[in-house]
């Protein structure tokens, strides 16, 4: 994606709350994603964010990527007790054992899902909210679809996937456009979503 080099544009209010937020806001947040690894990465980072600020996670993101083999779920699923111990001693990440174990568990669940659904993207995009039914941007932290997705993922054995976590995931991965009215990126995201080809599952539902 092209980096938008300007400080004259009106952005979402949160984008000015930290030095590294404008670039993330302008080049990543809200663009639709169908790459399984990137989707898994964001689910994992949202897991680590639980109870913390996104800035904490964003500043440590490269450390997380190195520690978790760039969130290759096939590799993460093989992590053992020694790997967990190394992660707990890694000062560059959030050293929370429950969250680390959840990521390893979810890597295994991701592999299972791909065997059934064909891809993570095909499954996750089934829960794309209808834009016409959503309230104005920046006015809620969950939606009907994030609640439904949370229930289904938990039923399939995923951990740390509450409705609020998944709504934040939907915002960042482009399943919804939650850029504020008047934010210059709202139109850009609308354009990206219009040309985005939704991934399809192997079977009909």
Key terms for this structure?
mainly alpha, Endonuclease III, domain 1, 11 helices, single chain, disordered N terminus, 205 residues
Structural class designation: mainly alpha
Low confidence ranges: 1-5
* Relevant CATH superfamily: Hypothetical protein, domain 2
CATH architecture: Orthogonal Bundle
**SS field, number of helical segments:** 11
- How many E strands? 0
Class in CATH?
Mainly Alpha
Helix fraction by DSSP (H/I, runs of at least 4): 40-55%
* Largest sheet: number of strands, sense, barrel closure: none
Gyration radius over CA:
17 Å
CATH topology assignment? Endonuclease III, domain 1
Count up the domains. Answer: 1
CA-based shape:
globular
H/E order of the elements?
HHHHHHHHHHH
- Overall residue-averaged pLDDT value: 94
Percent strand equals: under 5%
Instruction: Measure the end-to-end span.
Output: 33 Å
Pfam families: Adenine_glyco (PF03352)
InterPro entries: Adenine_glyco, DNA-3mA_glycosylase, DNA_glycosylase
Protein name: DNA-3-methyladenine glycosylase I
Structure description:
- This protein has 205 residues and is mostly helical.
- It has a single domain, classed as Hypothetical protein, domain 2 (Endonuclease III, domain 1, Orthogonal Bundle).
- It is built from 11 helices and no strands.
- The longest helix has 21 residues, at 97-117.
- It is globular, with a radius of gyration of 17 Å.
- 34% of the residues are buried.
- The model is unreliable at 1-5 (pLDDT under 50).
